[in-house]
Design a protein that fits this description.
Oligomer: heterodimer
Mean pLDDT of chain A: 91
Distance between the termini of chain B: 37 Å
Largest interface: A-B, 24 and 20 residues
Order of helices and strands of chain B: EEEEEEEEEEE
Shape of chain A: globular
Strand content of chain A: over 45%
Largest sheet of chain B: 7 strands, mixed
Number of strands of chain A: 11
Helix content of chain A: under 10%
Number of strands of chain B: 11
Radius of gyration of chain A: 14 Å
Shape of chain B: globular
Strand content of chain B: over 45%
Low-confidence stretches of chain A: none
Number of helices of chain A: 0
Distance between the termini of chain A: 41 Å
Largest sheet of chain A: 6 strands, mixed
Structural class of chain B: mainly beta
Helix content of chain B: under 10%
């Protein structure tokens, strides 16, 4: 089966650091992706991990532990514009040929002044 | 910067009618996808398309759905005989998928389909 879990909502203060967790159980694994989605808009790519460890990209970092089926997205120096939903998505190998993305339910982050 | 475009931005249709949602992927990309997102719910995979054929489809993508790449640029999703529960935002995405390298999907702005 395929299951991805994320907290539904989080709140943080402008300038702070927030960590959004994601746990997954999929039949295959070929990368974990993080997307940002503002209300009514399309998802936009933030970061991905294929191997275990931390990937840093400006104010955003993402961590992966494949053995634990766990990832987190770290957002530093939070800004008001970071208020959005953050989607964790796993690229799932299906029957060794097709691949598709399995999205989590998203975490709605509210950044307060 | 190249981007995925979708038309129309909003489509209203009556139950039982057919709709065609259009997408123009990024020109040098090879893989194309359709997703849907019912209001307030998660993004759901519908279908992936490569080399002029479907490479994967989900349980949602039943016989009422079809995809086509009628020319070198457009990628369409057809929904025959729409149902109320088809009301959702439909996103097209494309991906370069250079062999041996993991790549990201670029999403279009979406088409909001409302079935009445």
């Amino acid at each position: 089966g395929q299951n991805i879990d994320q907290p539904t909502e989080m709140t943080a203060t402008e300038g702070a650091i927030v960590q959004i967790n994601c746990t997954y159980q999929t039949s295959g694994f070929n990368g974990l992706f993080w997307y940002q989605q503002h209300a009514g808009e399309a998802p936009t790519f933030l970061s991905y991990n294929v191997l275990d460890g931390l990937e840093e990209k400006g104010r955003f970092s993402s961590f992966l532990s494949r053995s634990k089926g766990y990832s987190y997205l770290l957002l530093k120096e939070l800004q008001m514009k970071d208020s959005a939903s953050y989607l964790c998505a796993v690229r799932d190998l299906m029957d060794n040929y097709g691949q598709n993305f399995v999205f989590g339910p998203g975490t709605r982050l509210s950044v307060l002044p | 910067e190249p981007e995925v475009t979708q038309t129309p931005s909003h489509q209203v249709t009556q139950m039982g009618q057919e709709v065609i949602l259009r997408c123009v992927p990024i020109s040098n990309h090879l893989y194309f996808y359709w997703y849907r997102q019912i209001l307030g719910q998660k993004v759901e995979f519908l279908v992936s398309f490569y080399n002029n054929e479907i490479s994967e489809k989900s349980e949602i993508f039943d016989d009422q759905f079809s995809v086509e790449r009628p020319d070198g640029s457009n990628f369409t999703l057809k929904i025959r005989s729409t149902k109320l529960e088809d009301s959702a935002m439909y996103f097209c995405a494309s991906e370069a998928r250079v062999p041996g390298r993991l790549d990201e999907q670029y999403f279009g702005p979406g088409t909001r389909l409302t079935v009445t």
